[in-house]
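Illustration: Glycosyltransferase.
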Amino acid sequence: MSEKLQDPSLISPSSKPRFRTVHRVVLPVDGDTDILPLYVDFNASQRVVEVTKRLKRAGALPAVVPPASTHQRSDFIVGRNSLRLPAFHRVSLGTYFNAFPASYWRKHTDVDSVRLTVNVDAEATIVVYRSSPRGTANRVDSVHSKAGGAITFDLPIGAFVDGGWYWFDLVAHSADVTLSSADWSVKEPEGFSPGTLTVAVTTYNKADYALRHMVTFAKDPGLLDVLDRLVITDQGTDKVRNQEGFADASAALGGKFKLVEQGNIGGSGGFARGMYEGAVKGESTYVMLLDDDVSIETEGVLRAVNFADFTRNPTIVGGHMFNLFERSVLHTFGEQIDTYRYFWGPATNTRESHDFAASNLRTSPWLHRRTDVDYNGWWMCLIPTSIVREIGLSFPVFIKWDDAEYGVRANKHGYSTVSLPGAAVWHMPWTEKDDTIDWQAYYHQRNRWVAAMVYSPYKRGGRMPLESIAVDIRHLLALRYSAVEIRIKALEDVLEGPDHLHRTIAHRLSDVRQIRSGFSDAQIKPDLLAFPPVRQGEKRIVPAEEPVRRTYGALRAAKGLLRQFTPVRPSAMQNPELAIPSMESRWWSLVELDSALVSASDGSGASWYRRDRKTFLSQLRRSIVLHRRLMANYDGLARDYQQAHPLVTGVDEWAKTFAAVSDDASEFSKD
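Result:
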């Protein structure tokens, strides 16, 4: 399928197709070998068979052969788009960032083929491969160029309905060869007009991260070409404008930068302001929501814009999330909503925390099946402004569920979300913290309930009410009274109805923190010597292991509930009975204890958990009463939230909130 292009003079201008580069081969230039496997694969290709249930039943499991380990050669890289390959070497560009995700283009665009152009300066062989949805590699074409130059392949994408990628390998012969550039391009349809972008970053006391974004965008000519404006919404006290280097970065961006300062109304409030600036006040085609504390692959931003330019209908295009601490690890490949539980989770047939250094793209069959998602996290998410203008701004929930709700809302209006391979950021994974037990527990509880009331197709939210009260009970058994107290507050607010959402968005966090401050399990001290020494009484206590069987777990939970009615051992109030690491601080580990020294999930210190019969009984009773009230009033509350939804996500209501937290409210005046 490689071809020699005709003499341009023989092609009339009206018949000559215009090609647009949508995916360039890029390379890291900082010498970081941790991320090199995401860009270049130095290992010999090997066929890996997916282990299926059928193979297991047949007893025909393939031999497990670990991928060949080779030294990562960052010295081969000579530029952002080029590498120097020594004689008699071979590398593959069948990698996360440099293979072409053909199946996504096949489903969401009218593009029927893609052109691969590879530029080399000496004798080389280019071998093109495609994969099937099962992950098997098929050799498509190859060209042996004795003199180098531009080598072009026109590749159809019609056979990628369920999955598959294109990529190429580069082979050097008796002399070194330089890959000066390679790109994937598609034909521009008649009347094609490329889109432009507003990037919206929300920050709260991470001013140095926000400044880094400014510098990154200012230094990348490709990004500046598509960028209308970078909007940073600063909601903290450590101001971005006070950072050293801010003036220079702002000047480098020129008129393409706007700093917004407002009171803290959370991620949903900050991103709503970014949507407002990009879709309501601006004229951009897209607004991209970007977390402040991420490291971005700038080519991914361009790929998201290019992909969105070619989709059949306006489409939300999100990026994947890599682990900021283990940089070759893909933390999540796609997100879906379990509507019966009304809870988010990994998309079907995906795996969390996949390490490309251990198993590259070519040897990971599951990565080749196209993954469809319900939403994309707002660590990196491009939204057409036409969608924003039609369905509204973010849900006013401060934090948690804003991104999931928006994806579900867009889908209800007929708009898809795509998590696009090759577009990604590095972000701290949520496995490094437990935000279900700190102040965010309030937002987890309230926002999940509100989202279920707006969208759940099941009567009274399906399984969610049962899970909600079960979480309260688990927290009570684990002596996390602060988490239960703010979850109770969340239920009270849900019962109040939708009017509280905008009214409380600016101050509910301080209320929640005030509530938590009265509980010892929420009081983290960095110095462990600030606590009495760990000391057990006469009864020896051994931390229990996680129940394997469901019946055994239910029995232990029942015994734990009964134990709450017994007196607390006096010695446990004088000294913690055990020290429990954060990763082991689950209800089954704490249910037999009257007190424990529990470390914080972020490693910043520890807190003293102490059993309190009075608090346990009070919180259990209040939780049951509130859950019963929610069930009794569910239909009416759901109707209220559904009817109010267009109002609370609308521009007018958000403008009132922006005016209330801004020093200058005049820009939100209708006059």
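Reading the tokens back as a structure: The chain has three domains: 8-50+73-187, 197-432, 441-631.
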